[in-house]
From TrEMBL:
InterPro entries associated with the record: MFS, MFS_dom, MFS_trans_sf, MFS_Transporter
Entry keyword set: Membrane, Transmembrane, Transmembrane helix
Biased composition range(s): Basic and acidic residues: 385-398
Membrane topology: Multi-pass membrane protein
Protein's organism: Streptomyces neyagawaensis
Annotated protein name in UniProt: MFS transporter
């Protein structure tokens, strides 16, 4: 690999890390944000739902922006907006200031997520081997770091602005400096390939739909863990308050571990095999959680969930890039919307089923949805090769079968 690609990979990895820190600092301090602005329990869901909705809008806008400017430019300027919006959430004192900050955060985070994964897909194509899981592993590391910083702030009862300001002061200039080395893809070879694989540079939604469903189902599973693991362990499995905080941390750590080694699995066995294994492990994790007789078995289930779900999202972005090599930016932007769709559906779905039926039974629904991924595993097919990389199997027949299956 050239030095240009190596620097581009390192710079993009730092961007994933910074985004993980920022997002974790926001979502883990929601109770403190609610107290600071006096948001009622009835109004809080509207604020929380607004962020992923606006992020979806930001992702759609990014698809149009990258037709005129490189994805690296979108990433270069959306990341500072995310960090400054986070600071605005901590520094504001009135509801309108919170609304403006969250709106800016949501729109910018949609552009940031889309452009980061666009660059990741193009870099993976340049490397000729799987590296997407590594980027998302760094994101998980950022999430763990951000959650740890949030714990420190909560433990010492620090004002939100005091918790957020040092982080922004460190990450913002570092991200701007690192952005000098971002590498855009889209060379002549990609455009030529796109004419065959993406109808002359256009994304056929019927071909993208299986990946969209996998993305949505993965985030329904992820939001189930992030929003309900603590309540489930305490209310259903009878754990202590302290132990109830552990499952999400365990989930994040196992997500980091799984993504750290996942690229090796893709290079050795192919992406489809890794996705199938991840779906099965995640389904077993949900089954263990649903049937757990106590807190420790429940924690085992959440551990399996981290190992299983962690591979699905990065490989879904990578598969979109392979399926539409000449229109990968547009494919990634559209696919990224289903990240937020899954996030919006997951928590209310499990909550409604838990109230109407039982929380044990509710855990079987994301389990079933994750298993549907096995039906669409064909969309991820690559073959490992003897040089340690992977290449696609011929897609002509696959595309026809996928289209008929829809």
């Amino acid at each position: 690999m050239t030095d240009v690609l190596r620097r581009g990979r390192a710079a993009l990895a730092f961007s994933f890390f910074a985004q993980g820190v920022a997002f974790a600092l926001l979502v883990t301090r929601i109770p403190a944000i609610q107290d600071r602005y006096g948001i009622s329990d009835a109004l809080l869901p509207a604020f929380l739902a607004a962020v992923p909705v606006l992020a979806g809008v930001g992702s759609v806008c990014t698809e149009q922006l990258v037709k005129k400017i490189p994805a690296s430019q979108v990433l270069r300027w959306s990341q500072p907006v995310v960090l400054l919006a986070l600071l605005g959430v901590g520094a504001g004192g009135h509801m309108v200031e919170l609304g403006i900050s969250l709106a800016a955060f949501g729109l910018a985070v949609g552009a940031l997520d889309a452009s980061m994964n666009m660059l990741g897909v193009s870099l993976q194509r340049s490397y000729g081997r799987s590296i997407m899981l590594g980027f998302h592993a760094v994101y998980s590391l950022g999430g763990i770091s951000g959650a740890s910083l949030a714990w420190v702030g909560a433990h010492w009862d620090l004002p939100l602005v005091v918790s957020y300001l040092p982080v922004v002061l460190v990450l913002l200039p570092a991200a701007l400096v690192g952005s000098r080395w971002y590498v855009d893809g889209g060379g002549p070879e990609d455009k030529a390939a796109g004419e065959a694989g993406a109808a002359g540079g256009h994304v056929a939604f019927s071909l993208l739909l299986p990946l969209c469903l996998v993305m949505c189902f993965a985030y329904i599973g992820d939001s189930t863990v992030s929003n309900w693991s603590a309540k489930y362990l305490e209310d259903v499995l009878g754990s202590s308050d302290e132990m109830a905080t552990v499952p999400y941390n365990v989930y994040m750590v196992t997500t980091l571990l799984g993504r750290s080694i996942g690229d090796l699995g893709v290079r050795r066995f192919g992406a489809a095999a890794v996705v199938r294994a991840g779906a099965v492990i995640a389904a077993v994790g949900f089954a263990v959680v649903a049937g757990a007789p106590g807190a420790w078995v429940g924690m085992l289930g959440f551990t399996l969930l981290g190992l299983g779900l962690c591979v699905l999202v990065p490989q879904t972005f990578a598969a979109a890039g392979r399926l539409f090599p000449g229109a990968s930016d547009a494919a990634v932007a559209r696919l990224n919307i289903f990240n937020y769709v899954g996030f919006l559906i997951g928590s209310p779905l499990v909550g409604a089923l838990g109230d109407a039926w039982s929380y044990r039974g509710a855990m079987l629904v994301p389990m079933a949805l994750v298993l549907v991924t096995l039906v669409y595993a064909r969309s991820f097919e690559t073959e490992p090769d003897r040089y340690g990389g992977e290449h696609e199997r011929p897609r002509t027949a696959d595309v026809g079968r996928g289209s008929n299956g829809l």
